[in-house]
Write a structure and sequence with these properties.
By secondary structure, this protein is mainly beta. It has a domain of 96 residues: Deoxyuridine triphosphatase (dUTPase) (Deoxyuridine 5'-Triphosphate Nucleotidohydrolase, Chain A). A 5-stranded antiparallel sheet has the order 2-3-12-7-9, with no helix packed on it. A 3-stranded antiparallel sheet has the order 5-10-8. A two-stranded antiparallel ribbon has the order 1-6. The N and C termini lie far apart (39 Å).
Length: 148
């Protein structure tokens, strides 16, 4: 199956996003830390991790940055603003905000797989002011109002 073409400017020594399997939805993003590793302290340490990549995402699409489930399950490491959004008009280096919710410090080395990238279509909305909205069975019921 042929997919969408995304042009990528790759810093020397950085890695293109890679799919881990033939049916993977997300492509792995790797840390670009050629000078030294980054230590995320246990219990909430966070850092902005560079990837060495600049993406040219086609108009009408976005890049969604998501956590890697293995890092989350084994170490408590996740993407802080998950899912992060990379807009199609952004041309800066992609950096990943990681946080360590685990009980031990976590070291990120150059080339480590740190997040996943999903390219998805975007539907732009037209927001119009109104004096009322339609009623529903749920109404104003908020968090937990439909059950646990």
């Amino acid at each position: 199956m042929e997919g969408l073409t995304v042009r990528v400017k790759v810093s020397q020594g950085a890695s293109l996003p890679e799919f881990g399997s033939s049916d993977a939805a997300g492509a792995d993003l790797r840390a670009f830390l050629p000078d030294q590793p980054v230590i995320l302290a246990s219990g909430g340490g966070r850092a902005l991790i560079p990837t060495g990549l600049i993406l040219e995402i086609p108009q009408g699409y976005e890049g969604q940055v998501r956590p890697r489930s293995g890092l989350a399950a084994k170490y408590g490491l996740t993407v802080l603003n998950s899912p992060g959004t990379i807009d199609s008009d952004y041309r800066g280096e992609v950096k990943i905000i990681l946080i360590n919710h685990g009980s031990e410090d976590f070291v990120i080395h150059d080339g480590d797989r740190i997040a996943q990238l999903v390219i998805a279509p975007v539907i732009r909305s037209l927001f119009i002011p109104t004096t009322f909205t339609s009623s529903t069975q749920r109404g104003k019921g908020g968090f937990g109002s439909t059950g646990v």
